[in-house]
Design goal:
By secondary structure, the protein is an alpha/beta fold. Helix content is 27%, strand content 16%. Strand 1, helix 1 and strand 2 form a beta-alpha-beta unit. 40% of the residues are buried.
Length: 237
């Protein structure tokens, strides 16, 4: 069984990579997976953030590898993270759903919006965040374009991949938020859980967990603070 962990990035993101990639590579070593950066430019996408669609390069990687965990580069794994390949059945896609809590209404509006463009398929809920997604060879078609196109609106890759998952009829292993602990999961509706009690911390969106210390969007300062303050809890440090 050939395992791979991929992340979408390039040298222009080294200000993040230098902080986070030691943790991602340590997790790859822990689970017996290779590690690869997806850095090929997306030249046929006009969306203002085309690098999001580097995730679709996993289609080609599944020619060589049996299973892939794709993670974003703005993440840190904790030392208590188990082997995700042992938890997600090979025939299912492992992902954390984001249409919950304060994001429920907005994410489900996006679900409807992409169907207005590409056709209604009965998808009503289950909005995935492919910043952490486990797939096997049989799932490679979720990394294809839809009718030769990208979804070029808010949510881009999340909505695009979610649409393909539902359209293809693949089974999903819905993972708990601890596998993709974003700011949205650190809110009162979810009990304000401490991020380093989770398996992976994801500095997406505002990227700021400690609002009393950093302004919204200053995720680099937040990551630097966390690496220094919670070093003993982070894998690879």
């Amino acid at each position: 069984m050939k395992l791979l962990i991929t992340t979408r990035t390039d040298d222009s993101f080294n200000y993040i990579n230098d902080l986070t990639h030691p943790s991602i590579m340590a997790y790859a070593k822990k689970v017996g997976a290779d590690f690869k950066r997806l850095s090929d430019p997306v030249i046929d996408c006009t969306y203002h953030e085309p690098y999001h669609y580097r995730v679709l390069c996993n289609y080609n990687e599944l020619e060589e590898y049996d299973r892939i965990l794709h993670v974003d580069s703005d993440v840190l794994f904790t030392k208590n993270a188990p082997n995700i390949f042992e938890l997600v059945p090979e025939n299912k896609i492992g992902v954390v759903y984001e249409d919950c809590g304060t994001r429920t209404e907005h994410r489900r509006e996006v679900i409807q919006k992409i169907q207005n463009l590409f056709g209604h398929i009965g998808w009503k809920e289950g909005y995935p965040n492919p910043s952490f997604i486990v797939v096997s060879k049989q799932h490679k078609d979720i990394f294809k374009k839809i009718d030769g196109k990208y979804y070029e609106d808010w949510g881009c890759d999340c909505a695009h991949i979610g649409y393909n998952i539902f359209k293809c009829g693949f089974e999903v292993c819905s993972l708990e938020y601890k596998w993709n602990h974003m700011v949205c999961f650190a809110e009162p509706w979810n009990g304000n859980p401490f991020r380093f009690n989770s398996f992976m911390v994801h500095y997406a969106g505002s990227g700021v967990f400690d609002e009393h210390l950093f302004r919204e969007g200053d995720r680099i300062s937040q990551i630097k603070h966390d690496v220094k303050t919670y070093k003993d809890l982070i894998l690879g440090y």
